[in-house]
């Protein structure tokens, strides 16, 4: 590129190149901000029909400048033409990545994050649809993820605007892998065409594969019109049934069987998101149960009793060097070490270490007196914090079992302390 400015924008460097033009990082000296400027390719070497299409892409995006203002749609600040060079100016997303970066099997996002992304896209598209705009080219490369994990839909160049008095684009418009059947047939496109593409996007983000492949365009179109994709759960077993249902419904070949609106899709995703949260909590609770039941403290407890103690305690993690109890403080909690080690000190002197399955804090639990020693995490530790108020909410058999083991542990601790004192006196 020979020129250093375009309009009022100072060109810094090239960011990327696509079929419709080149994107540059520029500086806007008037608003004192960096922007992304897309310079449409010159007409040299293109047929008249290709020139018409490229001009239409520019006018489409220029028309949308300032029209679509949504937190998940990349804002268009300006559009212009200078010496035959057409350009649009957009927000520069520093550190942004297209979702194509997360469509590889080795680099897939967590299921819950994918639901969040598609939910935001659905809300943004619902907003655009209400403005009369159908995107028509939803795909991973047209959605940016910011450094903070938010998303922006980009490139409304081939959008269909029901309220704009512009000549429609003819021919197969869009990216075939993400086109709905009505789009590849060149039938009328609607907001449900975007919903289909969102379903394909979700399928690819979840599995790392596109639902349809073909050696050429004709084979791909045949797949889109006639084939059924591999079920999501066969490619990623952790995907819950409710989410697979949502993907399947969004990708129905018959628009009448899809979600009617992007808002309806977003509501369904909200339900899936809540279910995933519940499932994550259940998995975490089961993992904690599996860790706790193997501890020596709980070897006489039945499984239901282990669950009762878990529900009557607080799970805590402490980093290396973090104090769990402090000498001289009042605290009535009793602790069971689930994993890791702690160091016990008194008056600055190390008394010893406690490991997985050991307990501490018994005297404070019994007498509600000041702590006589400090207990510090050695290399990171997970503990169960138990207090009498919570234990009293457990069943009577569980309380009896707990206090029996608790007292035996206390007696063993006192016995070891007495033996150590006797040895020190000799």
Return the domain count: 3
Percent range for β-strand residues: 15-25%
Spans of at least 5 consecutive residues with low confidence: 162-172
Measured distance between first and last alpha carbons: 90 Å
CATH fold-level assignment of the largest domain: Transferase(Phosphotransferase), domain 1
CATH level-two architecture of the largest domain: Orthogonal Bundle
Helicity range: 25-40%
CATH-assigned homologous superfamily of the largest domain: Transferase(Phosphotransferase) domain 1
- Rounded to the nearest angstrom, the radius of gyration is 31 Å
Q: How would you classify the quaternary structure?
A: single chain
Mean pLDDT: 84
CATH class type of the largest domain: Mainly Alpha
Helices, by number, come to: 12
Class computed from helices, strands and strand pairing: alpha+beta
The major sheet is characterized as: 6 strands, antiparallel
Overview of this structure, please?
This protein is an alpha+beta fold. It has three domains: 5-91, Phosphorylase Kinase, domain 1 (2-Layer Sandwich), CATH 3.30.200; 97-277, Orthogonal Bundle (Transferase(Phosphotransferase), domain 1), CATH 1.10.510.10; 314-425, Jelly Rolls (Sandwich). The chain has helices at 48-64, 111-130, 181-184, 191-207, 217-226, 232-235, 241-250, 262-293, 303-311, 362-367, 388-391, 396-425; strands at 5-6, 9-17, 21-28, 33-40, 76-82, 85-91, 97-98, 133-134, 143-145, 151-153, 160-161, 313-318, 323-325, 334-339, 342-346, 349-354, 359-360, 374-377, 381-386. The strands form five sheets. Strands 1-2-3-4-6-5 form a six-stranded antiparallel β-sheet, covered by helices on one side. Strands 12-19-14-17 form a four-stranded antiparallel β-sheet. Strand 3 and strand 4 (33-40) form a beta hairpin. Helix 2 (111-130) packs antiparallel against helix 8 and helix 4 (191-207) crosses helix 7 (241-250). The longest helix has 32 residues, at 262-293. It is elongated and about 95 Å long. Mean pLDDT is 84; it is low at 162-172.
């Amino acid at each position: 590129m020979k020129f250093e400015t375009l309009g009022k924008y100072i060109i810094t460097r090239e960011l990327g190149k696509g079929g419709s033009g080149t994107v540059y990082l520029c500086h806007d000296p008037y608003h004192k901000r960096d922007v992304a400027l897309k310079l449409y390719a010159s007409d040299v070497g293109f047929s008249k029909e290709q020139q018409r299409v490229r001009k239409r892409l520019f006018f489409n995006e220029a028309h949308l400048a300032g029209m679509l203002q949504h937190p998940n749609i990349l804002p268009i600040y300006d559009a212009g033409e200078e010496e035959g060079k057409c350009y649009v100016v957009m927000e520069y997303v520093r550190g942004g990545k297209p979702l194509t970066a997360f469509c590889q099997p080795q680099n897939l996002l967590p299921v819950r994050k994918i639901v969040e992304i598609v939910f935001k896209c659905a809300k943004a598209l619902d907003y655009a649809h209400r403005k009369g705009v159908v995107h028509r080219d939803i795909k991973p490369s047209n959605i940016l993820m910011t450094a903070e994990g938010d998303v922006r839909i980009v490139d409304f160049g081939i959008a269909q605007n029901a309220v704009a008095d512009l000549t429609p684009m003819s021919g197969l418009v869009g990216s075939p892998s993400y086109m709905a059947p009505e789009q590849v047939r060149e039938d009328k496109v609607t907001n449900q065409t975007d919903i289909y593409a969102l379903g394909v996007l979700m399928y690819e983000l979840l599995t790392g594969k596109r639902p349809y492949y073909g050696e050429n365009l004709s084979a791909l179109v045949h797949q889109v019109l006639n084939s059924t994709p591999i079920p999501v759960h066969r490619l990623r077993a952790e995907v819950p049934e409710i989410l697979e249902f949502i993907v399947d419904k969004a990708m129905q070949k018959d628009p009448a069987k899809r979600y009617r609106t992007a808002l309806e899709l977003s509501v369904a995703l909200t339900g899936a998101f809540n279910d995933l949260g519940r499932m994550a909590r259940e998995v975490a609770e089961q993992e904690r149960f599996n860790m706790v039941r193997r501890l020596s403290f709980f070897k006489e407890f039945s499984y239901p009793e282990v669950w009762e103690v878990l529900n009557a305690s607080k799970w805590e993690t402490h980093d290396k060097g973090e104090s769990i109890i402090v000498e001289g403080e009042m605290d009535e909690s009793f602790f069971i070490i689930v994993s890791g080690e702690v160091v016990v000190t008194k008056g600055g002197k190390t008394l010893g270490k406690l490991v997985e399955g050991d307990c501490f804090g018994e005297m404070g639990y019994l007498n509600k007196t000041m702590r006589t020693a400090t207990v510090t995490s050695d290399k990171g530790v997970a503990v169960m914090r138990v207090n009498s108020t919570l234990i009293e909410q457990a069943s009577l058999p569980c309380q009896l079992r707990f206090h029996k083991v608790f007292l035996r542990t206390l007696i063993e601790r006192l016995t070891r302390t007495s033996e150590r004192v006797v040895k020190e006196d000799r």
